Amino acid sequence: MNKSNVIILILFLFFFSSCKKESDFSKIDQGIILQYISQNNLNAQSTSSGLHYVINDPGNGETPNVNSTVTVAYKGTLTDGTIFDQSDLSGATFPLSNVIQGWQEGIPLFKEGGAGILLIPSALGYGSQTVNSIPSNSVLIFEVTLIRVN
Fold first, then answer.
1. Which of 61, 36, 62, 59 is nearest to 118 (CA)?
2. Residue 107 and residue 97: Cα distance in Å, rounded?
3. Which residues, listed in sequence order, are joined to residue 83 by a DSSP beta bridge?
4. Rounded to two decimals, what is the model's pTM?
């Protein structure tokens, strides 16, 4: 086998092993989220991407999109209840285009004034990256209130 064939074989094996790992985490995350929903007696819905959400209050104002700047009060936890981030009651303001995919998809499910929970699989969060106190491949739970679409 010549050198270029070996490189192609290595790349091929790397590509397919990476795909399998992503698929495995998707299934693992799904199980973790479903267990969390059951243990916490939540009435959650899901999207095709694997995001699960609970709408406690749909709100009655403007609906944001990925290009919107929003103000959101939130608390982010791991499934074991460890808080890794939270805003104060006045919320934090940011463009949705600058946050994780789970928020880009989840926040537009609420209208201004709405509140609920986003259950975000790792692929829609930080994936295999460790970010501050968030371990790699973590399911993220966010309690959110959409205060304002700016």
1. 36
2. 11
3. 77
4. 0.84
As for how many domains the chain has, the answer is: 1
CATH code assigned at 17: 3.10.50.40
What are the DSSP calls for 82-125, one per residue? -EEEE--TT-EEEEGGGS-HHHHHHGGGS-TT-EEEEEE-GGGT
* Cα–Cα dist 38/42, whole Å: 7
* CA distance readout (Å), 57 to 39, 52, 95: 21, 16, 22
- The conformational region for residue 127 under phi > 0 = left, psi -120 to 50 = alpha, else beta, is left
C-alpha dihedral, 68 to 69 to 73 to 77, nearest 10°: 70
Structural domain including 19 reads 3-149
Write the pLDDT tens digit of every residue in 93-116: 999 999 999 999 999 999 999 999
H or E segment to which residue 75 belongs: strand 69-77
Q: Please write the tens of the pLDDT for every residue from 65-80.
A: 999 999 999 999 999 9
